[in-house]
Design brief:
Layout lengths: L1 E4 L5 E5 L7 E4 L8 E2 L10 E4 L4 E6 L4 E6 L5 E6 L8 E6 L4 E6 L9 E5 L5 E5 L5 E4 L5 E5 L7 E5 L4 E6 L1
Antiparallel strand pairs: 1-2, 2-3, 3-4, 5-6, 6-7, 7-8, 9-10, 10-11, 11-12, 13-14, 14-15, 15-16
């Protein structure tokens, strides 16, 4: 369901439903077996990659844990509890300026919080919102997230991570 190329452009990270471990393929030799994460991701739909910190972030929906992985070794660095996240496929965004991770769930079941903003360092929730986005995109230079929806609303929203609120929306 999600792929990204690393900063060196030598490796391709891959995850998705029915892919139990995050994978890293060597683009110089795609016939070689991929490197697998040392912990299962529960078939994570997506992940976030921070090339500057050399980290990957994925949500294991089976254990309801946010996994912090080293991007070179795919070894687990730490976890954060996401018990309050609404059940459903999650997407993640990293924002270095606010030192946050945002996790948004498609909220298959309308319980819990579908959007959580976490302090990146300690995994503590610093904001939450009733926004069950089907996808998100981090602005390349601002602390903004663009959210799209497919289930309960038909909008595009701009969520400002510094203000911790929706500042713009369009049908």
């Amino acid at each position: 369901n999600w792929i990204e190329i690393d900063r060196s452009r030598m490796y391709l990270y891959v995850t998705g439903h029915d892919v139990p471990y995050l994978r890293r393929y060597d683009l110089r030799n795609l016939a070689a077996p991929p490197l697998l994460s040392d912990v299962p991701t529960g078939g994570a739909q997506g992940f976030a990659y921070d090339p500057l910190a050399n980290q990957l972030f994925a949500v294991n929906t089976d254990t309801r844990q946010l996994l912090y992985l080293d991007a070179t070794t795919l070894k687990l660095q730490k976890t954060a509890d996401l018990a309050q996240l609404s059940p459903g496929d999650p997407w993640i965004a990293v924002d270095a300026q606010t030192d946050t991770l945002t996790v948004v769930s498609e909220a298959d079941v309308q319980t819990g919080d579908p959007l959580l903003v976490l302090n990146r360092s300690n995994g503590q929730t610093v904001a939450r919102a009733d926004l069950d986005a089907g996808n998100l995109l981090k602005h390349p230079s601002r602390s903004w997230l663009y959210l799209t929806f497919f289930r309960r609303r038909s909008e595009v929203m701009l969520y400002d991570l510094e203000a911790r609120s929706v500042t713009r929306r369009a049908p």
